[in-house]
Design a protein that fits this description.
CATH topology of the largest domain: Elongation Factor Tu (Ef-tu), domain 3
Order of helices and strands: EEEEEEHEEEEHHE
Structural class: mainly beta
CATH class of the largest domain: Mainly Beta
Largest sheet: 7 strands, antiparallel
Strand content: 25-35%
Amino acid sequence: MEIWLKQGKEKLRLPVLPSDFEITEAFKNTSVDITNYGEVNLIGKKALATTNISSFFPKQKYNFVAYKDFPTPKECVDLIKSWMDSPVRLIITGTTNMLVTIESFNYSRKDGTGDIYYSMELKQYRIPKLKTKKVSSIDKHTTQIIKPVSSRETKSVKTTTVTVKQGDTLASIAKRTTGSSSNAKAIANQNNLSYPSRLTAGQHIRVMIS
């Protein structure tokens, strides 16, 4: 049996197998008491599997080490610590191949051999699967309907030219041509004149009459 931890291109085979290990798998079931019936068990969703591995990283080449040329204890510790912020793949040949997260990692030296003893708590990692809903977007164009104006609705605008007489003012011309002296300022604007403005006899003033 071999136990591997892998993340990307990096991998570590545990040099000394743990004396024992177990993987716990469970369901999140719920017990409910029903009146006049009793307790029933409602089966829930599958919980994340967990496992604990305890062993040591050898400093020396013991005859029970699983393979030769194993990394140093410090290299093993540093590698596992660098993996703790991302999922790793746990492979136990013949039984297990799953993504896990390293929930905790404890290590210490117990004697003068240089070996580092450790324990790891691992929890299954599931990649979240988000359901996406396709939304079709429909462009809405606002169409402005222009109602044609009939000939009866069309207002005709006429322009007439007034010759200024002695004593005429813009107000008197507006009153005489448009029926209201309040149009005097509009007539001044039409003729590029200031308002009020003094007029000269014989001067020509254009007036727009609707």
